[in-house]
Design a protein that fits this description.
The complex is a heterodimer of chains A (279) and B (417).
Chain A lengths: L1 H5 L5 E12 L2 E12 L3 E5 L6 H8 L7 E6 L2 E2 L5 H7 L1 E3 L12 H8 L8 H6 L2 H20 L15 H14 L4 E5 L7 H18 L2 E6 L2 H7 L2 E6 L2 E6 L1 H6 L1 H8 L1 H17 L1
Parallel strand pairs in A: 3-8, 3-9, 6-7, 7-8
Antiparallel strand pairs in A: 1-2, 1-4, 4-5, 9-10
Helix pairs in contact in A: 4-6, 4-7, 6-7, 8-9, 11-12
Chain B lengths: L6 H23 L4 H26 L7 H20 L4 H25 L6 H36 L2 H31 L4 H20 L1 H5 L10 E2 L7 H19 L2 H11 L1 H6 L4 H27 L1 E2 L10 H10 L4 H22 L8 H15 L36
Antiparallel strand pairs in B: 1-2
Classes of the chains: A alpha/beta (279), B mainly alpha (417).
């Protein structure tokens, strides 16, 4: 808990209390608590099916929680439609990339910039001066985001035709174009090789500093988050089973059990004891 | 803002003007008989309806079979106005003007009001809208009655030809607006349905409109519409110039809309609704906007159609004909403006012109065998449609040039279209 408690001075960005979601009789998430403070980089980890993405979907308004509250800078989100939540400053990426597949790379990013476009339907149809100046501005802005992700030369490419890694980067670029304060990344490293993962982690660090972001990251490969998250929450079967710094989590018996199963956990415990004895 | 008139714009409007002039001259000289100019006007009308549907289905991804219903609403609404004016009665114009105005204000006002209330379920909202619309319509009819006298005297003071053209123009606009308002009201509950269910619900609308038109004289007292016997005596006012004018407006509006942030929002809904919501786009609003705009185009097209033959029959608005604009946009290429316009003219020319003339006499009805066959072959050879993904340069979205990339040593190579 040390990392979480040491940063108490910073303003809380996201405050989740008792968040619960039932799908029929299935309890996907139960009594989930989480507080994230400004500029933190937090991991939400757990085995497949632990309920991590469900938490994301409740934060972003895609699911309505069965119980509990989600506060973003003091505003209650749990009854809001998704688009309004995004406009408050929460953007996300998806586990199974959801780009606008038949649109160009540039348009993918420009769509995210839409709430800040600054002109309306009438301006658009009449093509007046307001339209032209704002449209040029937002295009330049979108190109800046593409440049950060090294996708500038790809602007005319159809999103669906990009290689996998570039699609992932484009999705993050698009999320940033929505100008969020809190960025939610759902398994950004899925399907990447170790070298790509390393670059991605660097990139996440970089964008946090560059855009002044608070980041919540879902991952089920523990290795990935260990390197970059300040602290993390571990979920299993819809419940938080542990919380702490990467070191604390690595040593946590419950976490090892959740990942490897009880028998294997016992085995690894034995192995560790043997090793310490030997040393 | 630099270079307001680029080459593509000049070429597009120049080309359009030449096309218009050539056809107009051919009609005036009499090379194109009424029969052929009829086909061209029908083609243009179909292009307008189909562009509306292309917005709804091709760009917004909502499978709608209601387009023909809105077309019918526009046709009958406009026909009634000009028919009455032919008998020197401006009551149609006055009443519909007031009703459309007040209903519009009611819908807009209530929309603003209800957007502040969170958690209102869709059917209660719909109920409130219905009440407001009904009240506004009743007041509109009263006010329209008061306006009839003065409006009639103003219009009769004008030269007869000019007055009838003005009434015709107003009738087209009002026809479109009535269709748009009905679409807004109808779309409120129905647009929340998923795609297939939405298709069936809109098909229901077309069926309802047809049945109402069958009984327009007995149920609603519109004697002049003559119910299932068909409305006759509508002035033949739709000239090539009128349809071409409206077609150009619809094409330019569609193009300007699509190449803006609003248009991209509309398209993002088709691409991925969830991602679009997650990007801060109010999906429900954009579905409504597109549906209303598409129906506005349908209403305008209907109004133009009513004044081509001067005859309207509810059978023309049978639900099965909802598939005509659907076929046109799929054939032309979903999401292609150029393709839609081409296919609409092609459809009219093929069905009424080429096939009718070239099939041996007595086999005219075989064109309904030949045309589906062509459609089948087309779909097998080019599933993306005739001009899927192809646009005239003016209608194409241009890629902006790359930023003068100061940080990048190789420098900006300039954008490509």
């Amino acid at each position: 808990m040390s990392a979480a408690t040491s940063s108490d001075a910073r303003t809380p960005v996201l405050q989740i209390h008792g968040l619960t979601k039932y799908f029929g009789g299935l309890k996907a998430v139960s009594d989930f608590d989480l507080t994230i403070r400004e500029k933190e980089l937090v991991g939400l980890i757990g085995p497949n099916g632990a309920g991590k993405t469900t938490v994301f979907n409740m934060i972003t308004g895609i699911y309505v929680p069965s119980a509990g509250s989600v506060g973003f800078y003091g505003t209650e989100l749990s009854e809001m439609p998704p688009f309004a939540i995004t406009r408050l400053g929460i953007a996300r990426t998806f586990q199974n990339i959801r780009l606008f597949p038949n649109l160009t790379v540039l348009d993918n990013v420009r769509i995210a910039y839409h709430p800040h476009a600054g002109y309306n339907l009438v301006d658009a149809v009449l093509r007046n001066g307001k339209f032209s100046s704002h449209e040029r501005l937002l295009t330049e802005r979108a190109q800046e985001f593409l440049a950060v992700f090294n996708l500038e030369d790809r602007q005319a490419e159809i999103a669906r035709n990009l290689p996998y890694g570039e699609q992932r980067r484009l999705e993050i670029a698009r999320a940033l174009a929505a100008e969020p304060k809190l960025l939610l990344l759902d398994e950004p490293a899925a399907g990447m090789n170790p070298a790509e993962v390393a670059t991605l982690m660097e990139l996440i660090h970089f964008i946090r500093d560059r855009f002044n972001l608070t980041i919540l990251l879902i991952e089920h490969q523990m290795r990935v988050v260990m390197g970059i998250c300040e602290w993390m929450s571990v979920m299993d079967f819809g419940e938080v089973i542990a919380r702490g710094t990467p070191q604390e989590i690595q040593a946590n018996q419950k976490v090892i059990e959740a990942y490897l199963g009880r028998g294997a956990a016992a085995l690894s415990q034995k192995l560790r004891e043997k090793r310490t004895h030997a040393a | 803002m630099a270079r307001r008139l680029d080459r593509n714009t000049v070429l597009f409007f120049g080309g359009a003007l030449v096309l218009f002039a050539v056809v107009q001259v051919l009609i005036s000289v009499g090379v194109l008989t009424d029969y052929y100019s009829n086909i061209l006007r029908i083609g243009a009308v179909m292009a307008i309806v189909s562009l509306g549907l292309n917005l709804i289905y091709g760009f917004n991804g909502q499978f709608s079979l209601g387009q023909w219903g809105f077309y019918a609403i526009g046709a009958y609404a406009a026909a009634d106005l000009t028919y009455r004016w032919k008998l020197h009665d401006a009551s149609g114009v006055a009443v519909l003007l007031m009703v459309v105005l007040l209903v519009g204000v009611a819908l807009w006002g209530l929309g603003r009001l209800l957007s502040k209330i969170r958690g209102l379920d869709i059917l209660s909202a719909f109920g409130l809208y219905l009440v407001a619309v009904f009240a506004a319509a009743v007041v509109g009819v009263r006010l329209g009655g008061l306006l009839t006298g003065p409006l009639t005297s103003v219009l009769t003071a004008l030269p007869a030809g000019l007055a009838s053209q003005i009434v015709f123009f107003i009738a087209i606009i009002l026809g479109g607006l009535v269709a748009a308002e009905v679409a807004y009201l109808f779309g409120l509950p129905v647009l929340t349905l998923g795609s297939d269910y939405f298709g069936i619900a809109t098909l229901g609308l077309t069926v309802i409109v047809k049945v109402l038109l069958d009984n327009s004289d007995t149920m609603f007292g519109f004697e002049e519409m003559k119910g299932a016997r068909g409305m006759i005596g509508i002035p033949h006012q739709t000239t090539w110039a009128w349809v071409f004018f409206f077609l150009m407006i619809v094409v330019v509006v569609t193009r300007n809309l699509l190449h803006s942030s609003e248009g991209r929002a509309i398209i993002s809904v088709r691409e991925d609704e969830i991602a679009s919501k997650a990007m801060g786009i109010n999906v429900a609003n954009y579905k409504t906007l597109t549906f209303v705009l598409g129906s506005l185009f349908a209403g305008i097209a209907g109004a133009l159609y009513a004044h081509i033959n001067g005859f309207l029959h509810p059978d023309n608005f049978n639900f099965i004909r909802s598939f005509d604009p659907m076929i046109i946009i799929v054939f032309g290429g979903l999401g292609s403006v150029t393709g839609t316009v081409t296919a609409a003219f092609g459809w009219a020319i093929l069905l009424e012109g080429v096939l009718r003339l070239f099939l041996p006499s007595g086999f005219e009805t075989w064109r309904f065998v030949v045309y589906p066959l062509l459609l089948l072959i087309m779909m097998l050879l080019r599933p993306s449609g005739l001009l899927g993904g192809v646009e005239l340069p003016f209608l194409k979205q241009l890629m902006p040039p790359l930023r003068a990339a100061a940080k990048r040593p190789e420098g900006a190579k300039g954008g490509q279209a």
